[in-house]
Fold:
Amino acid sequence: MRRLLPLLAAGTLSAEFPDTVFLHGRVLTLDATERVAEAMAVRDGRLLAVGRDEEVEKWVGPQTAVVDLQGRMVLPGLIETHCHSIGAARAALAADYQELGSLAEIQDWVRRRAAEVPEGQWIEVPRNEITRLRERRFPTPEELDAATTRHPVLFVSVTKSVLNTAGWNALGITREGDAVNGGEVVFENGRPVLMLGGQAALRTLMPQPAAPSPAALRAKLRELHAVYNSVGLTSIFERATDRAGFDLFRDLAAQGELTTRVRGTFRFAAKDAAGVEKYVHSLGLMPGEGDDWVRATCLKITVDGGIHWGTTWLSEPHGAKRTAFYRNTDPAYTGTQSYSEAQMRELFGAANRLGWPISAHVTGDGAAMAVLRAVEAVVAEQPSMRDRRFNLIHCYFPDAAMVALARRVNAGVDTQGYLYYRDADFIARIYGPQWAERFIGLGEWVRGGVPVGLNSDHMIGLDPNHAMNSFNPFLMLWLAVARRDDQGRVHGAHQKLGRLDALRTLTAWAAWLSFDENRLGSLEAGKLADFVVIDRDYLACPEEELRDIRVLRTVVGGRTVWPR
Ligand SMILES: [Zn+2]
Structure:
């Protein structure tokens, strides 16, 4: 028989009984034996015991609450290893988000806005990447004119913008040679069609939403975290926060208002060792500072751009096809390279000496290899660098050499399920099928023994399935297993994962990325009592149903946070 804690076995004081026991479930523990248990006992936010019903039931004390799981399946709490919840809360306070899948949907959205917004006032299309539009291209000014001529309209793809005629007129750009501060305007047949850069100048013309009050931001953040809980998320990595954001989470936790655990990643832009030291000093936090609710875990730099905007750092020139698609100009371009390898060696070495783990935004394979070579060089000088578990963020195109090097330096990966779903078909067409087979290559990482967290990069919108990057973890589990894109196609069947490994990308391996493997990621005595009760059998339901799994109850630290 699996024994409870000794003092429980002695069992005389009610304070030593569990607060709650959960009986008659099917508990997918993800422990070393992959055991499916029936029951759990919880006290003070931790699991006292996980075992068979009769083993756990006998410890029910006079004050112990008993929950009958009625045969439902229980999973370890799901960990979202990459999101921007404060940014998403701010965005939600500024404007409603709408996922738009085609130019016609953009036009319809603009028409609806134009019916509400006073004539002459700017309308900005919600952020939707061109890679995800059915037509897979920028709208033309004429297509935006077709939606309204009485309002200036703006469509932005990070650094590139298209405006309707009223928009170009509002900017004073009507003839070839007219320019915007910091921007370059592309003309075709004498008419402006696209602006490169110039975002700062554009923003000065646009009405800016008032900054939300601290109370409003706090309320919206709580609302969003409740949505996270409703789909089974119990922990998040806030992947680009700062001291103010970290303090906001700590304050919510202190007031008992936090319902997801938060692991803070701090993004900075310094380019040398002195800059890292200055940044760490200004942060005023120790590495690993915090508690089980809110903890500082690592620093982050942004090394390249992204696949949506044509700035990903590849191991080969972008070439004619990608250049035309992104409306870039130089086919020899290999992508944005914000740091040289020498700079990264210096930065990583400085962070490591200060005791800080570090992570890097690397989308392309060129960026990933440059980062890994820099990490390897630091490991040679400072072996403790291996213990910092370097986090490769995004890292879309793994191959055998990259995986082997990541394994050698003890790195882990955070990569995005929804990008595969929405962008793999585009990658196959514009980059080529061999790139699509590598894209979000989960099987490659897992076979190579590199811990990988599958996540959303959620940044805008509150709908779990239709946010700017869906954060529904069951969609991700289905994607990891089925590897179908939104057209139903499979690119690289060898990248599919089995169901337990898929679950590990949202639990055990995710916990490893933030040094939480002794607290989170599986359901075992002594770990934090974070778990999710779901409406069907994760192991046995038809594959197509994985994405439809519903959460019946989400428990964080022994407390039911959803439903509320
Ligand atoms: Zn992100």
User: Anything to note?
Assistant: The first strand starts at residue 20 and ends at 23.
